[in-house]
Design goal:
Order of helices and strands of chain B: HHEEEHEHHEHHEEEH
Number of strands of chain A: 23
Shape of chain A: globular
Largest sheet of chain A: 8 strands, parallel
Strand order of the largest sheet of chain A: 1-8-7-6-5-4-3-2
CATH architecture of the largest domain in chain A: Alpha-Beta Barrel
Strand order of the largest sheet of chain B: 3-2-1-4-8-5
GO molecular function (chain A): cobalamin binding; metal ion binding; methionine synthase activity
Family (chain A): Belongs to the vitamin-B12 dependent methionine synthase family.
Radius of gyration of chain A: 30 Å
Structural class of chain A: alpha/beta
Distance between the termini of chain B: 17 Å
CATH superfamily of the largest domain in chain A: Homocysteine-binding-like domain
Oligomer: heterodimer
Catalytic activity (chain A): (6S)-5-methyl-5,6,7,8-tetrahydrofolate + L-homocysteine = (6S)-5,6,7,8-tetrahydrofolate + L-methionine
Largest sheet of chain B: 6 strands, antiparallel
Distance between the termini of chain A: 74 Å
Helix content of chain A: 40-55%
GO biological process, one term (chain A): tetrahydrofolate metabolic process
CATH class of the largest domain in chain A: Alpha Beta
CATH topology of chain B: NADH Oxidase
Enzyme class (chain A): transferase
Strand content of chain B: 15-25%
Shape of chain B: globular
CATH topology of the largest domain in chain A: TIM Barrel
Radius of gyration of chain B: 18 Å
Number of domains of chain A: 4
Chain lengths: 788, 218
């Protein structure tokens, strides 16, 4: 077989299967892949017609033949996939057409949108891929994806479990986003990085609407680009596609000029469309594309071109931060998410993620933190570890194109880390030091940068994916090194043209008024060509300096961002002192988060209150007053939660104060909350959690769609005495009952309370729950009764 | 238009709304409507009648029970409708929960009101496309005695997975969260409004009032 047949010239794919079957009179309904067994001659005839019409690749009828969708059909994946591939191969026999194993979405959303885990999705696709390869498929076509994460699971499965070439196409709306918000640059750079052989767009739009999106895609990838649109847009009333074959072919031909080389059709198309396409493309040649790779990282919704100054937030790092260390050891991922959210709100573009700390298993923790952060933060992440297994585990579950921090000039480190960077298509930070240490001169650091670049290129990692960190040393300890670092930055920028990283905060260690030194160094470094400063975005001085630099460098066009940042602010006005007449109790009741936190810190610092008395004598009574108002219908849920969050700020002050002097945390008792198996919406459970935490209870949140066994395990392992279960749907009440039954099988079962949308006191009684809670406030009362 | 009053009602707000709360709700609503537009698809199917048995031609969907029987009594066609705020809303809600739970519950309620207004927009479009046809109230799987079990078939008939990104879980939940499917009958004679409140309300599954047999009286 001709190697890499998709790379040279124009390649013609097939059109729709379902549309043609319906035209032929096959009644709709049922799962289409089962026709491989029940009506093989129908399926084979369609494939045959496509091959005769000129399709060079015919997709086997395996789109939804995954274990999940076949679950209740009595057929196995192996049976249906093997039948599908075999039918297609027989049908195209005697023609030059190749056969693709077709893999569509699994029909269930992955985490965090749904509850399907990434690893399960990987396993489902892997099974299909293995069966398809064994049946003799020539390639794999992953198509109609709307979730980049699902596409990644499928692509990894094919790459790791077969040797077949793989095409990936996704479905976008006219605005250039998929249903899950994925952008075209994010899709292109992520899938190319992961090793797809060709990428493109299929379904959802007709060729006219697809054209601008194809142009955009061609600008963002080196790979061959695929266009497989529908026959126009469906009629909204009857659902049919009406674009005629000749119009379809003419419209799609314009994709050729954009740089598309692989063509086909999706919903509403038939062999006639392919015949027309073949005729239209007969005397045509690929149009060469120009692609200048630019440094880039992304999440699906946040493509980030590194063509200016981009701030990397440094706060997710336990070094020197007692409270963060405590959160890591307690696996308090909510705290880590909170640190991330603050940096995002402060204007960070990328977040560095370092969870290395004695007593923490990084290989387990890094991917967990990545998932947690990506559930609520849109920013791209830079995974910061020297442990290759932790990096691989983190990159594997990362959704998008991440960065790795870091490698250095030591050949052993390069050999250990770069294969992982290559495999997952990440960007990587190269530190200008090696096995002999950090050179003292800018020249020597540049030499190491060159060596790292050579190594990166030797792994076939694109040049733009390497960022160089020339390393900041503490100026109070090694004063001459500050200028040497700055020179090195300039040399790397000018001579290698690579993006440059620098953790600037180190510079001022040990000096008074650190912010001034750090800010001055930052400004000088930016001036020397620093593009990716790592800093604390919560420090206003730093972000102000970056904002000003972006104006002076011309990056902030028409000073728009700068004006937005500072418009309306009065310079040098002192912030109103929070203590001005405001008592802690009132701050909590009014839901003033910042003020409540400040008042609590003041009270603790001045030694006016112990941590415990602050909680017991001020905080809880304030929360109770709000709670009473809620019960009487004078205070409503958002206000109740505002008060709870103000209380959270007080608790945060208490925790920080205790952590600083090594005291035991204030804990009123431990309990579990969970939304039962089958239920995926969990805001109600989260409301309960917010309330309980802010009364000082240690809440183990097991999340949503939690199997009974997992709850049992936690209750046993962590000696939990109180369990709260939530259910939203009548269809999941049995899972709640099952969980209670299982917990009651323990010799000393925990106290169980239940609540949630459809649960009534009668249900609770019948299921054997100890308590029923109608709302979050009632849950607090139950916790008090049981745990005190 | 997102009806902020309706959103506040979903949160159990009765009587005079505190100013601060209304302001916050309006702020959240503005942020939501700027970022997310409801999407919908619908299709018109001939309604087949064999004795008491109602089905939608070409789909294999049977609409059993008194609810469908009563509402569709004078109809010869039925529209299946699906409307969703998409997973973008869910992402927004997750992010808001990490920031501010109080705003998150407002966003959740505003999302419910917003997907309903998406359904209203779909009906308005339907009215323009099918002048002279009268519509029944819209009603959803799980309402009255129309079983939740038809949910997967409704989504399949609309190709809602491909066209809206909608999926149905094994426990028959629609995902993304703020999604609605509904049936609307079409007739040549004017149709009486039979349903008030709850059927139109995407909070009905989680409504404390409905649990007690009441409704919010809108």
């Amino acid at each position: 077989m001709e190697a890499e047949f998709w790379k040279n010239g124009i390649l013609l794919l097939d059109g729709a299967m379902g549309t043609v079957l319906q035209q032929k009179g096959l009644p709709p309904g049922g799962q289409p892949e089962l026709l491989n067994r029940s009506a093989p001659e129908w399926i084979a005839s369609v494939s045959r017609e496509y091959a005769l019409a000129g399709s060079q690749v015919v997709y086997a009828n395996t789109f939804g033949a995954n274990r999940r969708k076949l679950a209740h059909t009595g057929h196995s994946v192996q049976e249906i996939v093997t039948a599908g591939v075999t039918l297609a191969k027989q049908a195209v026999a005697g023609t030059p057409a190749r056969v693709a194993l077709d893999m569509g979405p699994l029909g269930e959303l992955l985490e965090p949108m749904g509850s399907l885990r990434f690893e399960e999705a990987y396993a489902l696709f892997g099974e299909m891929a293995r069966c398809g390869a064994a049946a003799g498929a020539d390639l794999v076509a992953i198509e109609t994806m709307t979730d980049l994460y699902e596409a990644k699971a499928a692509l990894l499965a094919v790459k790791e479990q077969t040797d077949l070439p793989v095409f990936v196409t996704m479905s976008f709306d006219e605005g250039g986003r998929t249903f899950t918000g994925c952008t075209i640059p994010s899709m292109a750079r992520t899938l190319e990085g992961l090793g797809a052989d060709a990428i493109g767009l299929n379904c959802s739009l007709g060729p006219d609407q697809l054209l601008p999106l194809l142009r955009q895609l061609c600008r963002h990838t080196r790979l061959p680009v695929i266009a497989k649109p529908n026959a126009g847009l469906p009629d909204p009333v009857d659902g049919h596609y009406h674009m005629a074959p000749e119009a379809f072919a003419a419209a799609l031909l314009r994709g050729l000029e954009a740089g598309v080389t692989i063509f086909g059709g999706c919903c509403g198309t038939s062999p006639e469309y392919i015949r027309r396409l073949r005729a239209a493309l007969a005397d045509k040649h690929p149009v060469p594309r120009r692609y200048a790779g630019k440094a880039f990282v992304c999440t699906p919704t946040r493509p980030l071109r590194l063509d200016g100054v981009r701030v990397i937030g440094e706060r997710i790092n336990p070094t020197g931060k007692k409270r963060f260390q405590q959160a890591l050891l307690e696996e308090d991922l909510d705290y880590i998410l909170d640190v991330a959210v603050q940096q995002e709100d402060a204007g960070a573009d990328i977040l560095d993620v370092n969870v290395g700390y004695p007593g923490v298993d990084e290989v387990d923790m890094l991917p967990r933190v990545v998932r947690k952060l990506q559930s609520a933060v849109a920013l791209p992440l830079q995974l910061d570890s020297s442990n290759p297994d932790a990096l691989e585990a983190g990159l594997r579950v990362y959704n998008g194109k991440a960065a790795v921090n870091s490698v250095n000039g030591d050949p052993e480190v390069l050999a250990r880390i770069l294969p992982i960077v290559k495999k997952y298509g990440a960007s990587v930070v190269g530190l200008t030091l090696d096995e002999h240490g950090l050179p003292q001169t800018a020249r020597a650091r540049l030499d190491i940068a060159r060596r790292i670049l050579d190594a990166v290129l030797s792994y076939d990692i694109p040049r733009e994916d390497l960022w160089i960190d020339c390393l900041t040393l503490t100026v109070s300890a090694q004063q001459s090194q500050a200028t040497e670092t700055l020179r090195a930055v300039r040399a790397v920028r000018e001579e290698l043209g690579l993006a440059t990283v620098l953790g600037v905060s180190n510079i001022s260690f040990g000096l008074p008024n650190r912010a001034l030194i750090t800010q001055s160094f930052l400004i000088q470094a930016l001036n020397m060509g620093l593009t990716l400063p790592i800093l604390n975005p919560n420090q206003r001085e730093m972000m102000d300096a970056v904002a000003a630099f972006r104006v002076l460098s011309g990056e902030d066009r028409a000073c728009r961002d700068y004006v937005e940042r500072f418009a309306g602010t009065v310079s040098a006005a002192p912030a109103a002192a929070p203590g001005a007449g405001l008592e802690l109790e009132e701050a909590v009741m009014r839901g003033l988060r910042t003020e409540a936190g400040q008042l609590a810190r003041q009270a603790l610092q001045q030694g006016r209150e112990s941590e415990l008395s602050l909680v017991e004598r001020q905080l809880i009574p304030a929360l109770d007053k709000v709670g009473e108002g809620y019960e009487r219908g004078r205070v409503f849920l958002p206000q109740l939660l505002s008060a709870a969050q103000a209380a959270q700020a007080v608790f945060e002050a208490v925790r920080a104060s205790l952590a600083a002097r090594g005291g035991e945390p204030v804990r009123k008792g431990r309990l579990v909350v969970a939304t039962v198996k089958g239920d995926i919406h969990d805001i109600g459970k989260n409301i309960v959690k917010t309330m309980l935490e802010n009364y000082g209870y240690e809440v183990i949140d097991q999340g949503r769609d939690v199997p009974p066994e997992a709850i049992l395990e936690t209750v046993q392992a962590r000696a939990v005495r109180l369990v709260g279960l939530s259910a939203l749907m009548t269809t999941t009440l049995p899972a709640m009952e099952e969980t209670i039954r299982l917990l009651h099988s323990l010799p000393e079962p925990p106290v169980i309370w239940v609540g949630g949308a459809v649960v009534t006191p009668e249900h609770a009684r019948r299921m054997g729950a100890d308590y029923y809670a109608g709302d979050a406030r009632a849950s607090v009362e139950i916790a008090r009764k049981v745990l005190g | 238009m997102l009806n902020v009053e309706e959103a506040l009602r979903y949160l159990g707000v009765r009587g005079p709304v505190p100013d601060g709360l209304r302001g916050q709700a309006e702020d959240v609503a503005a942020q939501l409507t700027a970022r997310i537009t409801p999407r919908f698809v619908y299709r018109v199917f001939p309604l087949l009648r064999e004795g008491e048995r109602l089905s939608l031609s070409g789909t294999g969907i049977v609409l059993p029970g008194r609810t469908a029987g009563t509402l569709l009594a004078q109809c010869d066609q039925a529209v299946l409708l699906a409307c969703t705020l998409g997973s973008g809303f869910d992402a927004m809600l997750r992010a808001e929960q990490a920031r501010d739970m109080a705003r998150a519950v407002l966003l959740d309620a505003c999302g419910s009101a917003w997907v309903e207004s998406g359904c209203d927009a779909a009906e308005a479009q339907l009215q323009r496309r099918l002048p002279g046809r009268y519509r029944t109230d819209r009603f959803s799987p799980g309402y009255g005695d129309l079983p939740l079990q038809v949910q997967p078939q409704v989504c399949a008939a609309l190709d809602a997975g491909r066209r809206l990104g909608l999926s149905v879980t094994e426990s028959l939940l629609l995902n993304p969260a703020k999604s609605v499917t509904a049936v609307i009958g079409l007739s040549d004679t004017p149709q009486r409004a039979r349903i008030r409140g709850c059927a139109y309300c995407s909070m009905r599954e989680s409504c404390t009032l409905r649990k007690g047999g009441n409704h919010c009286g809108s």
